[in-house]
Amino acid sequence: MWTRLVVMTATAGLAATLLGCGQSPSTPAAVIQDKVYTVTPPSIAVKAGVMTGEVTEMKITERVEQGSGSVVTPAKLTGKLKLQNSSTDQTIRLIGGKIQFIDADGKPIMVDEKKFEPTIKFQTYGAAERLDPGQDATQVVEVDFPAAALKAKKLKEIRLDLVYLPSSYREETVRLPVSIGE
Prior knowledge:
Blueprint: H1 2-19, E1 32-38, E2 44-48, E3 51-65, E4 71-85, E5 90-103, E6 108-109, E7 119-121, E8 136-144, E9 155-168
Antiparallel strand pairs: 1-3, 2-3, 3-4, 4-8, 5-6, 5-7, 5-9
């Protein structure tokens, strides 16, 4: 008797699922595409204190829904920052940096009300967290970009404020007078 009741309940449940609970027609998924804005020039030489280098591969990308044009992911500035310690007698430790977007009037453009200046955190480069004279480090940059700056002739410049600790770098020779006894 119990077996018959279990089989009838399972059959009724399966029939209800197959007949009455069919899927409604699905709506087509929105197509998302990257909208890329070129930055001119795409590469710029930089010099800050004892550091030289360049910012390369700069571009701005936002993700938009095809057709409606609505923004899915806000704009981001990406690029590569390569810095070299051009000093002959100082070691430096890269700490971080801030980026400001400046309009044609020389005023900062805010990313939004909460984020004024995007920051860069330097990763560890090499065996130590320092750059000795002649050494270089490359950092990928990906920061939020203000939507207001995407308008033509709105953005005049990008300012990069770098924070680093310099320290004296010295090489010394120590003479050790020794003899080998028998």
